[in-house]
Amino acid sequence: AVLFYVNDTRQLTIYAMNKKPTINIATGIATGSGSAVDITTNCTYQSSNTRIATVTSGGFVQGVAPGSANVTVTYTAAPGSANISSAAQGKIPVTFTIMVPVTVLKAPMP
To answer: Could you tell me if 99 and 70 are in contact, meaning their C-beta atoms sit under 8 angstroms apart?
Structure first.
């Protein structure tokens, strides 16, 4: 779980792995494992309990009151870009959803 204090705000950062290999033109051999691509601004976000934690469209989560909630993050990959054989062959978009557990604690005494 991601821990927050009441009134604490942090941004979730979401990455997708770009698995596109690098092809050596001289040999025709594919090498490399690709890189991480920041897709934070391409995701949608929703809190399961806005009385505990809120989340903005940009992925900023704020603790509201002590308790637990889940932030649902959804991303739809461009048609044919996901590395899932049946979807990639059909060139259809693929949607990925993850749940981020959030626990909000009472702010510590100064």
So the answer is: yes
Only one residue has tokens 């033109």, namely: 25
What is the tens place of the pLDDT at every residue in 68-94?
999 999 988 766 555 555 444 555 566
48: which 2 tokens? Answer: 């399961």
| Alpha-carbon torsion (84, 86, 92, 97), positive or negative | negative
Its sign, for the CA torsion 57, 8, 64, 75, is: positive
Give the residue carrying structure tokens 């092809």: 23
Kindly write down the DSSP assignment for every residue of 13-81, as one continuous string. Answer: --EEEE-PPEE-TTT--EE---EEEE-GGG-EEEES-TTTEEE-TT-EEEE-SSEEEEEEEEEEEPTTT
Pairing outcome for strands 35-38 and 44-47: unpaired
Tell me how many degrees the CA angle 86-87-91 measures, rounded to the nearest 5.
125
